Amino acid sequence: MKFLASVAAVAAVASVASAQTLQISNPTTGVTWQVGGSGYISWSGNCANLGNASHSVDVQLMTGPATALRYVADLTTIDCSGNTTSTTVTVPSTLTPGNYSLQILTSPTDSYSAIFAIAGGASSTSAAPAPPAASTTKAPSGSAGSVVTAPLMAVAGCVALAVGQLLL
């Protein structure tokens, strides 16, 4: 009976962990947005666990290393309930060129993009890049991995606890 309860607990933690974050597929490493131009954001997964709040989730622009990100600006809100998987945003014209990432406030665990570049210049084009083809979309890297790691570590801990209970 303890085994069934442990397996149920592990399954519950695993389903909650996977439902709480988005996998941001664009922007990713190698992508460059232009100051004052448009930026394309795409993701997979959903945050339907937020209920009605999933229709208006904040997207923030961050800077700094993955271990010490700092808030720069609010970019937009997205619908991550599963109905929409991409959007285009206006890159603020007041930004300093550099490396940035996105933080999507998918409570209780936020979702992060990989670090990407924003270049400056008044002569920059403001056209939005075409959505990437499915075969060329890169999996999120950089700080995105840390978002997935914490829930997976929790699941691993529950599995270890369940195995320990079996051995008793």
Q: Quote the CATH topology.
A: Immunoglobulin-like
Shape: globular
Number of helices: 2
Order of helices and strands: HEEEEEEEEEH
Would you count the extended β strands for me?
A: 9
CATH class: Mainly Beta
Radius of gyration: 18 Å
Roughly what fraction of the amino acids lie in strands? Answer: 25-35%
- Specify the biggest β-sheet: 6 strands, mixed
Give the CATH architecture: Sandwich
Determine the fraction of residues in helical runs and give it as a percent range. 25-40%
Detail the poorly predicted runs. Answer: 1-19, 122-168
Domain Yeast cell wall synthesis Kre9/Knh1-like N-terminal: 26-117
InterPro entries: Kre9/Knh1-like_N, SRP1/TIP1-like
Pfam families: Kre9_KNH
Protein name: Yeast cell wall synthesis Kre9/Knh1-like N-terminal domain-containing protein
Question: How would you characterize the overall build of this protein?
Answer:
It comes from Entomortierella parvispora. InterPro entries: Kre9/Knh1-like_N, SRP1/TIP1-like. Keywords: Signal. There is one protein chain. The protein is an alpha+beta fold and 168 residues long. It has one domain: Immunoglobulins (Immunoglobulin-like, Sandwich). Helices cover 25% and strands 29% of the residues. It has two helices and nine strands. The chain has helices at 2-19, 144-167; strands at 23-26, 32-34, 38-44, 57-63, 70-78, 86-90, 98-104, 111-112, 116-119. Strands 2, 4, 5, 7, 8 and 9 form a six-stranded mixed sheet that branches. Strands 1-3-6 form a three-stranded antiparallel sheet, with no helix packed on it. A hairpin with a 6-residue loop joins strand 7 and strand 8 (111-112). Residues 1-19 and 122-168 have low confidence and may be disordered.
